[in-house]
Specification:
Elements lengths: L1 H17 L6 E7 L3 H17 L3 E4 L16 H9 L4 E10 L12 H6 L13 E10 L2 E11 L4 H15 L1 H5 L2
Parallel strand pairs: 1-2, 1-3
Antiparallel strand pairs: 3-4, 4-5
Helix pairs in contact: 2-5
């Protein structure tokens, strides 16, 4: 009986540890209402990922300015992205302001995620914290989702500064662990 329980425990542990994200490449997609927010977030995440030796392709380098994000799912664009060696997508958006948010248990596919629009900005007046949600997709399926709360913010620049400081400490090490 003890051996069967131990075996079941080891199999379950193996399953959960197999789910660890090992980022080696990422197409970075920022879902924000304003274009300058999307650009700033993609540039910031690209810089942070490169510091961890993750090959990064911001979506702004794939799609033309103002082009619908749904075009990213076209077969021709998908094949170009795959030829460049990218099979993982990191989607970031704002989950909310000034409260503690939990990770959503919704398991949207990448196409469903790209269909949703964001009405949020990187920073909102009177907000003292911003919670970002990072969703990682491989083969169109969600493999990980994390929330990062950046507190004590007063403007857009302070949000990006907090993100640069907190993301490498809280989330990135678990994503790029060898």
């Amino acid at each position: 009986m003890k051996y069967s329980l131990t075996l079941i425990f080891l199999l379950c542990a193996n399953y959960f540890f197999a789910q660890i994200v090992k980022l080696s490449n990422a197409v970075v997609i920022a879902q924000f209402e304003r274009e300058e927010d999307r650009y700033a977030m993609q540039a910031t995440l690209s810089e942070l990922f490169k510091a961890y030796k993750v090959n990064v392709l911001p979506v702004m380098n794939v799609l033309k300015q103002g082009e619908d994000i749904q075009h990213l799912l076209n077969d021709s664009i998908q094949s170009v992205i795959l030829q460049k060696g990218f099979d993982t997508y990191v989607v970031v958006n704002v989950r909310g302001y000034d409260r503690k948010f939990k990770v959503s248990d919704d398991t949207q596919t990448l196409s469903e995620m790209l269909e949703t629009t964001s009405i949020y900005h990187i920073y909102r007046d009177e907000a003292t914290s911003v919670s970002f949600e990072f969703s990682i997709y491989r083969n169109g399926k969600l493999i990980d989702r994390q929330i990062l709360r950046c507190g004590n913010v007063s403007d857009r620049d302070s949000v990006l500064k907090r993100l640069r400081k907190r993301l490498p400490k809280k989330i990135l090490p678990s994503w790029v662990a060898a």
